[in-house]
Write a structure and sequence with these properties.
Length: 655
């Protein structure tokens, strides 16, 4: 029976305890001295299981269902309400959807408190000048209708795949700024999520030019604790209505949210690497549904997950017709990566480029920089026997051998043991000669530097990033995602070793390869200005054909149809459990009663005593499956079962 406290209020608190069986609110009495400060969203300290712990006030009520005597709140850590009811509800929904706990997700949503920043006088922020906007997204009839609806405050949902940055309408930052301006003009707030610091810097520069400095807040982990919390407080207090940031910004407590935008929605940087591993794109979809606001998912490529929403009618595409896309983008051609093509020229064989590609490079260098995308960093990331092509492994530890640059030109080394001592001999055929079946960006730059001795060579990869290049002729070699931004567009681009990117043992390999290739196409001048892209690979590959047509929507449509045939996400839901074999066996009692669930494994993992069980369920039964497994983890947690079990829902890598 509910009990009525005499005069004290009841605070329902989410205690910061990550244990699954304690993933629920707990009631505490609010002392009279704290009554003025205890409101939904404030941080408090409570006594829990004999220890002082942090907590969040979710609700303040007059009654409780607890029959026992309630403990009082120990203190209010801060009277600042930083967890709004809307965000608290989103946190709960994300935790339930991905099989996590409230405690895990709220750490993603709210940055750590910075007391000095909280007490400081907030900086003055100007209102955005949203009437001065470019006309990128409104370049098509569908885009203009979308912007008009957002200006009226309608909860419209769309997907946008721009083409040809240097052709005009592909300016993604300008298109996102169009959508931002439309939402701000309606008097509502906006969240824009981008995958990395480079995209954040470019969008920030565009918004500063158009809306004015200080008119928006940036939320990113690398901003530093004080700056990040200062910007977060500006949003929570309602001083700023526009937020841009990386994946955690999707939880920003924007008042009267009118639009959520996610750029490069297929980028794996948008997937949270910490439990419960939510993807910012899916969180944005969930938030748009809960708060009835507009949504824009955008990127040069399109994922099967987004295509599924398009085919359901939940998202409307804003793309241009195929003929217009080919006019705006570069001309894309295929150079077959076959032994016959490579044997024509020994130099081409060393650089893994057919002869025709050298002509493309020479023609491009006549008018500007030429980009070569190389899938792997390093010099020779893998070596094989020259005669039988067997992968070369270290005789001591069996790790793959690699080639490194040395004073005399080349050195064989192991990642664990260092430089190889003695002479290597193939265990299969006894041959001691080595070849590099795939070479890295450093070796490729070396080979091309010899072929074009008078041309400047620029290399860029993770750990050695080059931000931008000018319009002077140069050979620019970069790994995927590390391409420098060209001031006037690349004259030509070469996508090397397409088969290597397509051959990764991952369900999303082709989708990811096309996304990265289309991002390169966006950096190349349009075909009308002589821009060309040459992909070195098999012409029959579906992703290569989609690239030639500059058709991410068509590729996503066929990819989704194949996922339905094979029952992979998003046509079904995959759930993995990693842990001791005995624990995975015990989990059968939880998942077996759920209708339609298939199981695969358990199979051993490289970690000691770690196994993986994979479960596949129809979409309609996914919530029941995740709930049942959460219940199993809660039961294990309550009895302190030995070993750790990790639950993942629709993992980013499926291979």
């Amino acid at each position: 029976m509910p009990t009525e406290p005499d005069h004290l209020r009841i605070a329902r608190v989410a205690v910061d305890v990550p244990l699954a069986h304690l993933d629920r609110p707990f009631d505490y009495l609010v002392p009279e001295a704290m009554a003025a400060d205890v409101t939904p969203g404030v941080r408090v300290r409570v006594k829990f299981a004999g220890r002082l712990r942090d907590g969040w006030v979710l609700e303040v009520a007059d009654t409780t269902e607890v029959d026992a005597k309630l403990a009082p709140l120990e203190r209010v850590t801060s009277p600042e309400p930083v967890l709004s009811p809307a965000v608290a509800g989103l946190v709960r929904a994300v935790a339930d959807h991905w099989g996590g706990t409230f405690s895990d997700v709220v750490r993603l949503a709210v940055p750590p408190r910075h007391a000095a920043t909280e007490k400081a006088e907030p900086p003055e922020r100007p209102q955005p000048r949203w009437e001065v906007l470019p006309g990128v997204l409104g370049g098509s009839a569908a885009g203009e209708r979308y912007l008009a609806g957002v200006r009226r405050g309608e909860p419209l949902r769309a997907v946008w795949n721009p083409v040809g940055v240097f052709g005009g309408p592909g300016d993604w930052a300008g298109g996102l700024t169009d959508a931002v301006g439309a939402a701000l003009a309606s008097g509502r707030g906006v969240i824009v999520v981008v995958p990395d610091a480079d995209a954040l810097a470019r969008l920030s520069a565009r918004l500063t030019d158009v809306l004015g400095a200080g008119s928006f807040a940036t939320l990113a982990a690398d901003a530093g604790p004080a700056a990040r919390y200062r910007n977060f407080l500006a949003v929570a207090r309602g001083d700023v209505r526009l937020v841009i940031g990386t994946r955690a910004a999707v939880f920003a407590p924007v008042h009267d949210l009118g639009l959520v935008v996610v750029w490069d929605e297929g980028n794996d940087s948008l997937a949270e690497p910490r439990a419960p591993y939510p993807h910012a794109r899916e969180v944005a979809v969930l938030r748009a549904s809960r708060e009835r606001c507009a949504l824009l998912l955008a990127g040069f490529g399109r994922t099967a997950e987004v295509q599924a929403l398009v085919e359901r009618g939940w998202l409307v595409p804003l793309g241009v017709p195929a003929q217009e896309a080919r006019r705006l983008g570069p001309a894309v051609r295929v150079a077959a990566d076959t032994d016959r093509a490579l044997e024509r020229d020994p130099d081409a064989h060393a650089a893994r480029l057919p002869r025709d590609v050298f002509g493309v490079i020479r023609a491009g260098l006549a008018s500007g920089p030429v980009l070569l995308q190389v899938p792997r960093a390093g010099y020779a990331p893998a070596l094989a026997c020259q005669r039988c092509r067997t992968l070369a492994r270290c005789p001591n530890c069996s790790q793959p051998l690699r080639g490194d640059r040395a004073r005399d030109g080349f050195a064989v080394a192991c990642a664990l043991c260092g430089p190889l001592e003695g002479v290597w001999a193939c265990p299969e055929c006894g041959d001691g000669r080595l070849r590099a079946p795939r070479v890295g960006v450093t070796r490729t730059a070396e080979e091309l530097g010899r072929a074009f001795p008078q041309v400047r060579v620029v290399t860029s990869w993770s750990g050695h990033l080059v931000d931008a290049v000018d319009d002077a002729p140069a050979l620019v070699l970069a790994t995927p995602g590390a391409e420098p931004f060209p001031s006037a567009g690349y004259a030509a681009a070469v996508l090397m070793d397409a088969g290597l990117m397509l051959g990764r043992p991952d369900l999303r390999a082709a989708e990811e390869a096309l996304r990265r290739w289309l991002a390169v196409c966006a950096l190349v001048r349009p075909a009308a200005e002589g821009g060309t892209v040459t992909v070195v690979g098999e012409p029959e590959a579906r992703a290569v054909q989609a690239l030639v047509r500059l058709d991410p929507a068509g590729f996503a449509e066929r990819e989704l149809a194949e996922r339905f045939e094979t029952h992979f996400p998003p046509a079904a839901r995959l759930v993995t459990l990693d842990g001791p074999q005995a624990a995975l066996t015990d989990a059968e009692a939880a998942w077996r009663p759920v209708t339609g669930v298939e199981h695969f494994g358990p199979v051993p993992l490289p970690e000691d005593d770690a196994w993986r069980l994979t479960l596949r369920a129809p979409v309609a039964e996914a919530s029941e499956l995740v709930g049942a497994l959460k219940g199993y983890l809660a039961e294990r947690s309550s009895r302190k079962a030995p070993g750790s079990v990790r639950l993942r829902v629709d993992p980013a890598a499926i291979g």
